[in-house]
Amino acid sequence: MAGEFERHPNSRLLEGKVVATLFFEPSTRTRLSFETAANRLGARVIGFADPKVTSGTKGETLKDTIIMVSNYADVIVMRHYLEGAARYASEVSPVPVINAGDGANQHPSQTMLDLYSIYKTQGTLDNLQIYLVGDLKYGRTVHSLLTAMRHFSPTFHFIAPDELAMPEYWKQYCLDHDISYVEHKDFNEDTIRDADILYMTRVQKERFTDLMEYERVKDRYLLKRSMLQKVKDNMKILHPLPRVNEIEYSIDDDPHAYYFEQARNGLYARQALICDALGITLEEVINCKSFIL
Ligand code: CP
Is the pLDDT of residue 234 over 90? Predict the structure, then answer.
């Protein structure tokens, strides 16, 4: 469905619908791509980018907020700083809730665009060598990517300092679901030479309780252009963004760099997600002849 939206991004499929975007945490890509997705399909958008402007500041609970918004909107897209908030919202909401990131837990809509990006660049999702680098503890995108890729026989390589290693319960998840993984401490041109996907992540400063610890680890893994000498021709560098100090800017025009295209794919993947949440089928998307020019 994302591919169909990439070919035809503008239509009136969602005319008459209202999409609510509730962002209790900062965002650039996720909120704007969801809102663009809704706008390009003819829906209207309500919501907030900053919870300080809501009645949450007066003490209104998340439950009451969600019930109220469901009075106004057909689907809710929500980012929240608490793990499990999206699941909770979905349990109290009469309309579909899409998780746009819940704390350090998951970021499933990011994973849908990651899968689309991997498929577009590799021609398959099967049997890939996927290297996850950086903050594997708090980086919710890598947790969601693990859960999705379990269907496609990947081999994961976890590259992180001890303080930000993949949590034990996610490693147990891999064992339980026959996902192969290898852990590395080194990050150099030899470590990454077999990668199909090199997935860089930002150290999530906002999740640290001890900022001294953040200072110790924040610049540990920087991808330098000189490290790309031995990589596979079709290796692609992904990053959910924002980037802080994980990828040298000189890599941006290298053919291995794919992170900005990856972010653009988010528009098409999120158009598909909103439609799917509203029960719109691929056939309906393909047959929609009502285009916005
Ligand atoms: N990838 C991502 O979630 O980016 P934003 O925080 O800017 O939405």
Answer: yes
